Amino acid sequence: MIVPGLLITFEGGEGSGKTTQLELLSQRLQDLGIPHITTREPGGTPLGEELRILLLQRERQPWTELFLFAADRAEHIHQVIRPALSAGKVVLCDRFVDSTLAYQGYGRGLPLEQLRQLNQLATQGLQPNLTLWLDVPPYVGLSRALSRQGKLDSIETQDMAFHQRLYQGFQSLAEADPKRWRRIDGMESIPQVAAQIARIVSPWLDPFRPASR
Questions:
Q1: What's the rounded Cα separation, in Å, for the pair 192 and 150?
Q2: Beta strand pairing status for 130-135 and 181-185?
Q3: How large is the average pLDDT for residues 189-212?
Q4: At what angle do helices 138-149 and 160-176 cross, to 10 degrees?
Q5: What backbone torsions phi and psi does residue 132 show, to the nearest 5 degrees?
Q6: What are the structural domains of the chain?
Q7: Cα–Cα distance between 48 and 195 in angstroms, integer?
Q8: Which residues contact 22 (CB under 8 A, 6 or more apart)?
């Protein structure tokens, strides 16, 4: 089903700076007068916030983890994302379907085709219009996460081999769909990363800019 809004997703490993850059882009859209919302997975709904706590408190069996993420996504699509898109808004989402492929597929080793089928059911076929991948080496991202939070959650504490597989997963997903994915050099300064994103996103925003008076 075609919806009038625009779905932009932010992807990347732990400590890649996604949340910071999403907030900066949101501020830019606000300055431009573009109607939009910001949201995240897991946690974009009241149920999602409860699931987020369950998922990040401790490690769970991979299939259990997968179905909890899928439940969060189905609720998120129904309650938040589709209504915003149907209202013609830009949706900025911190993680979406590709994180499932990267984390549970490449990271945990679950079958990618089955993950895609589950994503299809949870989203009812909704795909991002544009995906911004903040490319940061795993050791840098984890160091950032630790310095920011003082401790690591159940996913961040996985061994480096997991995070390397995760990184390779994002690389593979980006290479397989260059029309949708854009790589962002996350090793630059925060303002430089924001400038990269602004250049990439700008043409996508043209239909949503208020008419000049």
A1: 26
A2: parallel
A3: 94
A4: 120
A5: -105, 115
A6: 6-206 (3.40.50.300)
A7: 31
A8: 10, 38, 92, 94
What residues pair up with 11 in beta bridges, in sequence order? 133
Amino acid at 28: R
pLDDT over 90 for what percent of the chain?
Answer: 82
Q: How far apart are CA 76 and CA 65, in angstroms?
A: 17
* Mean pLDDT within 157-178: 95
Alpha helices in the chain (DSSP H): 18-32, 46-57, 62-76, 82-86, 97-99, 112-123, 138-149, 160-176, 190-205
For position 212, what pLDDT does the model report?
62
> Edge-to-edge strands of the sheet including 6-11?
36-40, 90-94, 6-11, 130-135, 181-185
pTM exceeds 0.70: yes
Burial 95-134 (b: 16+ CB within 10 A, else e): bbbbbbbbbbbbbbebebeebeebbeebbeebebebbbbb
Structure tokens at 133: 């991948």
How far separated are the first and last CA of the chain, in Å rounded? 33
The reported pLDDT for the residue numbered 158 is 87
Q: What is the pLDDT of residue 213?
A: 42
pLDDT in tens, 23-80: 999 999 999 999 999 999 999 999 999 998 888 787 889 999 999 999 999 999 999 9
